[in-house]
């Protein structure tokens, strides 16, 4: 690898690499260097064995608890529970296993950027070799359409040699290249105009390149190295469920131990007391948690497909819902990646141009009033000159118009079409003679056209450069000599438009008539007439403004990270209203000048990063995460891939995105629409809300079961429930109703609230108090039924247990409607707004009735069927937890403690941890 090759002359590089620029390397020297530097390919991380990937799925603490619960259930003879728990564990393991096998395809995708063969100068002649055999010092010939096979310094090139670098640098337009050395020391590789890089594509012209880096030493190779080093961390949901599972198991163990000791000290049979305690422990563990979480995420994935979002990893849905920052690329994500002329200055008049994309449809207005371009001669002449001075073409593809050639020229052709000037029609009258291509030093291009036997030169380029060639000006008074005041006015207009993130080109012409045209370009481009300016921009996508407003309402900060220029990026950020007075913008060079401490101090103020490299993007993501942010990173190019993988949630663009970025991302936006990311945020928040509702339901129900046994033991009552009854209650109530809660409709108020704090507990103190209170409601109902039948009616122990068993089951089914919101009334939500929950409760109730009145099951569960009167009373009594919670919610709302965030999200007090 050559150090700073952009600073050195071609002669200095040839001496350093020891080669003849005309003959290239010899075959033997190339073989020697190939042994030294290795093949020109990216190294791959050895794939993990599938068996080890499968074993990794059993690392979660809750999984081991479930396996223990299955063993205990088998010990108790509850083989149905054992089979159900093991099936749940296996299902989750298989899902995780299949997802992980796809997660490391990124390096294989990177290999697709290679040109399979290259034209190389060796032993004094051009030969075709495998691109993997390229070595530093090789001289490679590049033509338009070629993929660049390695990093290299340009030796010589045609005047119009340009390279498309958007996938590597984020630069939206093809970059014109030079062979001259550059003096800057710390030059970002996006600004190394005399260098070309592996993974980019030549779009126009020809060049010869001196290879300076191959394989993992290229810029693309460095990205591959960062992808290998970057390890994916657990998502916030995975971390919280892990912590919650441990807390739940320890808490249940302590309570169950207390029940065991109380019953044993009261003289209960050791074996029976042990079985009761173990049954209670099995019932207390929400074995359905992983399954319902997986199902809730999977259902969210299906809904998101309809909203143009593909999910590669299930937990990613929730993670995006908790995002506090979205780091977005500019080109193609926030903007259209389509240049469009927005302003034409002709004859001292500013014409505003409307329309979208490259479609030649739009209006011309002056100070808001529509005008007919057909009666504006100077405007038409400006656009005619611009259309003729172009080598691009507009092509209709279905309902879309595409540009074949330079996007800037395509924008001018589209604008001319809006004025009724179409290049295909113009060329029927004008004959092309010659072209002087654009040159980065001349900063202009010129074409010679013949019309009615007369020759005219049409030029376009940087306004300040073109003005130096002009001695005449097209004005409303006719063609006249240009004055210094005219030049100053035009340059002021240019600066004003450039400050609005517009790319400004001057347009002029020179009539030669039937005179002989000079041979020298400098002579052709003298004594020209200036006709006007065209100002174009890569406009924001139409739907982005609303999407960003919704992000603001949801408390999500937007940060632009782009390879484009700083002033352009800031202007677009201001236009989209996420760059305010307190914000700052940093370039990659400015970021390099900051220490880690200085950067961490300023990172929350930065809204735009411009001219950045992949290392800069990684540094930004890591700094934000260090500040406690949940970071979503969008990207499409190869340069985005490491940061996309490093972020909490990586979002790739489906249409413009490279395979590399898609394969490391957690989700892919199929329509490249920023608004789809907002839809994903909404779904993510809804899914997290539903998981919380499900967990809330399970905990409050399990708390009720434990409290029934605990309170009965404390007050010296007979054991109100048998082990088999506890397990049945757990099975019938933790199944269908919990799953239905996981499918609850998304509350639209979720997008009007700030993101959850990253350190917020999965179960907050407020929610924990509600869970305990609701558990007491359920326990009270069941114990009262037992007490009434056993002590007041003297109905016997089996009948009393039957009453407690039935009421415990039914009260949990009614309680499931409570869990849809901790503050909103169930009547405002509507019983039919979640028909699945209603159906689940009906099915579970039918199962409970079935086991009570079937001759076989009543012996298995040791129950005594209730008559119709007692059954009706028991059902009515089972509804008390629902009414009691409605009264509590009404009191909270009246006192101001309730909140719309109660539907899964917490009110402001939820941030207590």
Spell out the key features of this protein.
913 residues; alpha+beta; Calcium-transporting ATPase, cytoplasmic transduction domain A; Calcium-transporting ATPase, transmembrane domain; eleven-stranded mixed β-sheet; 30 strands; 47% helix; disordered C terminus
Secondary-structure class: alpha+beta
Low-confidence stretches: 102-115, 900-913
Q: Distance N terminus to C terminus?
A: 53 Å
Q: At the third CATH level, what is the topology name of the largest domain?
A: Calcium-transporting ATPase, transmembrane domain
Largest sheet: 11 strands, mixed
According to CATH, what is the class of the largest domain? Mainly Alpha
Query: What's the number of extended β-strand segments?
Result: 30
- Provide the CATH superfamily of the largest domain: Calcium-transporting ATPase, transmembrane domain
Instruction: Provide mean pLDDT, rounded.
Output: 80
CA radius of gyration is 36 Å
């Amino acid at each position: 690898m050559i150090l700073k090759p952009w600073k050195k002359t071609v002669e200095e590089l040839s001496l350093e690499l020891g080669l003849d620029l005309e003959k290239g390397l010899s075959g033997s020297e190339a073989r020697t260097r190939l042994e030294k530097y290795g093949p020109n390919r990216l190294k791959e991380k050895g794939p993990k064995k599938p068996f080890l990937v499968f074993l990794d799925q059993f690392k979660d603490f809750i999984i081991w608890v479930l396996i223990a619960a299955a063993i205990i259930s088998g010990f108790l003879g509850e083989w149905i529970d054992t089979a159900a728990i093991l099936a749940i564990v296996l299902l989750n393991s298989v899902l995780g296993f299949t997802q992980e096998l796809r997660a490391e395809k990124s390096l294989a995708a990177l290999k697709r950027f290679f040109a399979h063969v290259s034209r190389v100068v060796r032993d004094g002649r051009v030969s075709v070799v495998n691109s993997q055999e390229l070595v530093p010092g090789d001289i490679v010939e590049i033509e338009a359409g070629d993929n660049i096979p390695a990093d290299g310094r340009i030796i010589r090139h045609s005047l119009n040699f340009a390279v498309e670098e958007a996938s590597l640098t984020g630069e939206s337009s093809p970059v014109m290249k030079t062979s001259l050395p550059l003096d800057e020391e710390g030059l970002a590789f996006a600004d190394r105009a005399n260098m070309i890089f592996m993974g980019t594509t030549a779009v126009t012209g020809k060049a010869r390149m001196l290879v300076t880096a191959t394989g993992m030493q290229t810029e693309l190779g460095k990205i591959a190295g960062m992808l290998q080093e970057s390890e994916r961390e657990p998502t916030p949901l995975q971390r919280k469920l892990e912590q919650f599972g441990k807390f739940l198991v320890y808490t249940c163990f302590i309570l169950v131990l207390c029940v065991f000791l109380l019953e044993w000290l009261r003289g209960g049979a050791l074996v029976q007391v042990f079985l009761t305690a173990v049954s209670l422990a099995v019932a207390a563990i929400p074995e359905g948690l992983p399954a319902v979480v997986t199902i809730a995420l999977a259902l969210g994935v299906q809904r998101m497909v309809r909203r143009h979002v593909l999910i590669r990893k299930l937990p990613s849905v929730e993670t995006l819902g908790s995002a506090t920052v979205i780091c977005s690329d500019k080109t193609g994500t926030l903007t259209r990646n389509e240049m469009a002329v927005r302003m034409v200055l002709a004859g001292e008049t500013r014409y505003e141009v409307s329309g979208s994309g490259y479609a030649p449809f739009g209006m011309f207005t002056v100070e808001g009033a529509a005008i007919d371009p057909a009666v504006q001669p100077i405007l038409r002449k400006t656009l005619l000159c611009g259309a003729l001075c172009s080598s691009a073409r507009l092509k209709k593809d279905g309902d879309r118009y595409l540009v074949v050639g330079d996007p800037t020229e395509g924008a001018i052709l589209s604008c001319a079409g809006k004025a009724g000037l179409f290049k295909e029609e113009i060329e029927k009258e004008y004959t092309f003679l010659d072209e002087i291509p654009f040159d980065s030093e001349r900063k202009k291009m010129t074409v010679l056209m013949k019309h009615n036997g007369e020759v005219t030169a049409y030029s376009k380029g940087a306004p300040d450069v073109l003005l130096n060639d002009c001695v005449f000006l097209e004005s409303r008074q006719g063609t006249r000599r240009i004055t210094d005041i005219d030049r100053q006015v035009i340059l002021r207009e240019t600066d004003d438009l450039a400050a609005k993130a517009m790319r400004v080109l001057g347009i002029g012409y020179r009539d030669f008539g039937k005179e002989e045209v000079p041979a020298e370009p400098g002579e052709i481009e003298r004594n020209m007439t200036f006709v006007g300016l065209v100002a174009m921009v890569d406009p924001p996508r139409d739907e982005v403004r609303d999407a960003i407003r919704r992000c603001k309402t949801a408390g999500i900060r937007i940060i632009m990270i782009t390879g484009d220029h700083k002033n352009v990026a800031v202007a677009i950020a201001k236009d989209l209203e996420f760059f305010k007075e307190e914000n700052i913008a940093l370039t990659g060079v400015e970021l390099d000048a900051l220490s880690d401490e200085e950067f961490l101090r300023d990172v929350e103020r930065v809204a735009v990063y411009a001219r950045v490299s992949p290392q800069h993007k990684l540094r930004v993501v890591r700094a934000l995460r260090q500040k406690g942010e949940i970071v979503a990173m969008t990207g499409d190019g190869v340069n985005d891939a490491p940061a996309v993988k490093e972020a909490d949630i990586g979002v790739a663009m489906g249409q413009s995105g490279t395979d590399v970025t898609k394969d490391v991302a957690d989700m892919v936006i199929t329509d490249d629409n920023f608004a789809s990311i907002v839809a994903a945020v909404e779904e993510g928040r809804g899914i997290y809300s539903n998981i919380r509702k499900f967990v809330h339901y399970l905990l409050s129900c399990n708390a009720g079961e434990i409290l029934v046994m605990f309170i009965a033991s404390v007050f010296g009552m007979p054991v109100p429930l048998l082990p088999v009854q506890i397990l049945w209650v757990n099975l019938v109530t933790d199944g269908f109703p919990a799953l239905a809660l996981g499918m609850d409709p998304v509350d639209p108020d979720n997008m009007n609230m700030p993101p959850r704090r990253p350190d917020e507990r999965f179960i907050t103190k407020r929610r924990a108090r509600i869970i305990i209170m609701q558990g007491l409601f359920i326990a009270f109902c069941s114990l009262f039924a037992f007490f009434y039948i056993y002590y007041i009616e003297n109905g016997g122990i089996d009948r009393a247990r039957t009453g407690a068993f039935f009421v415990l089951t039914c009260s949990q089914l009614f309680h499931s409607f409570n869990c849809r919101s901790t503050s909103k009334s169930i009547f405002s939500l509507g019983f039919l707004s979640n028909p699945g929950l209603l159906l689940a409760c009906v099915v579970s109730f039918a199962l409970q009735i079935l086991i009570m009145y079937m001759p076989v099951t009543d012996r298995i569960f040791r129950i005594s069927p209730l008559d119709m009167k007692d059954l009706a009373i028991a059902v009515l009594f089972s509804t008390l937890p629902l009414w009691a919670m409605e009264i509590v919610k009404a009191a909270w709302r009246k006192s101001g403690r309730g909140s719309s965030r109660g539907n899964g999200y917490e009110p402001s007090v939820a941030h207590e941890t």
